[in-house]
Amino acid sequence: MANLKLILVIGGTGAQGSPVVKALSESGRYAVRLLTRNTASDHAKKLAELPNVTLQRGSQDSQKDLHAAFTGVYGAWVNLDGFTLGEKNELFYGVRAYEIARHHGVKHYVFAKIDYGLRQAGWDEQYHCGHNDAKGRVGDLILSHGQSHSGMMTSVFTTGPYMDMLFDGMFVPEEQSDGSFVWENPAADGKIPLIALDDVGVYNLWIFDNPSESAGLDLEVATDQVSFAEIAATFTKVTGKKGVHKRVPLEDYLAKAEPYPGAYSNWTVTEPGVPRDESFMTWRENFTPWWRYWSEGHAATRDMALLDRIHGSRIPSLEAWMKAKNYDGRSRSVLKSIQDLKEKM
Ligand SMILES: NC(=O)c1ccc[n+]([C@@H]2O[C@H](COP(=O)([O-])OP(=O)(O)OC[C@H]3O[C@@H](n4cnc5c(N)ncnc54)[C@H](OP(=O)(O)O)[C@@H]3O)[C@@H](O)[C@H]2O)c1
């Protein structure tokens, strides 16, 4: 372990962070310190069995825990969980985590973000989605400090929706009595940059391995950029079953999909009806711009040639991913937070 570079991974037990922890560990070049609220969870214990992975108990929204976590590490990979923190706290702790990392002399800081939709859609408030924009603002701030006069290199890793969400949550189709599968949602006909979680580890290993190229870079990734009509058509091609995208008005969809009436955007950890800060979005307020932004094609801007160069054996398409996963349109668990919630109920 003495010669390995130590990387703090925040969000490492999650769907996006787990492949990063695995790739760093498997490389044999890095040791991982994983920050988690619960070192006894199954997710945490499984990762701790990997070579050179240690767990550190702590919370993303504790400056004391962040100080302890960043002490003595070479690098950091940070994915805050907007769905537990909420937009305002994600913004605050996103900035504080970065500042605390600088204080501790971290050499390479990688911030996992989502598109800054509000900025990319021309500052039109219709696109202000809390969990996208909190991360987007922090990413902009970090890169704005530049690389030249600092002792810390910074990189940003930008994902869109996970391709794996076709298994979990809003992207799962409904099986009909005639055997067909229907995606009934408000998606327009734009292309959405979906990222397969299986490829996330390789991209981030490349970022840490190649700082001369990755410092200052916002690496925007996707496996494929597809519309919902294309998702349904690919499903039919791969499974032989009929797949249909049925576009419905946003209001009709929201009424059906809302976890419960009046749910907050971080509904998995917030009791209904508790007093909230004015900045705190409801689930509807958060996912109305979310559907608009992604499905109107604003984010289908990924540089696939760059991604091919960085990860030559990446999953090449939605079709290849569906085949590799034996995708059948039925739900499987992807997000840790949703699994945790189900286990509590
Ligand atoms: N779903 C998507 O398609 C998608 C796409 C791009 C980006 N994202 C973003 O990814 C983030 C969520 O990560 P995920 O997708 O990996 O979800 P996940 O599978 O539900 O995992 C959540 C992670 O956040 C950690 N976490 C939550 N609150 C924490 C706290 N207070 N202190 C320390 N750790 C905390 C959890 O760690 P412990 O439970 O072990 O403490 C876990 O590692 C969100 O901000 C979301 O916006 C999601």
TrEMBL record:
Organism: Aspergillus cavernicola
Listed InterPro entries: NAD(P)-bd_dom_sf, NmrA-like, NmrA-like_oxidored
Protein name, UniProt field: NmrA-like domain-containing protein
Record keywords, A-Z: NADP
One Pfam assignment: NmrA
Superkingdom of source: Eukaryota
Family: Belongs to the NmrA-type oxidoreductase family.
Residue intervals of the NmrA-like domain: 5-256
Gene3D superfamilies: NAD(P)-binding Rossmann-like Domain, UDP-galactose 4-epimerase, domain 1
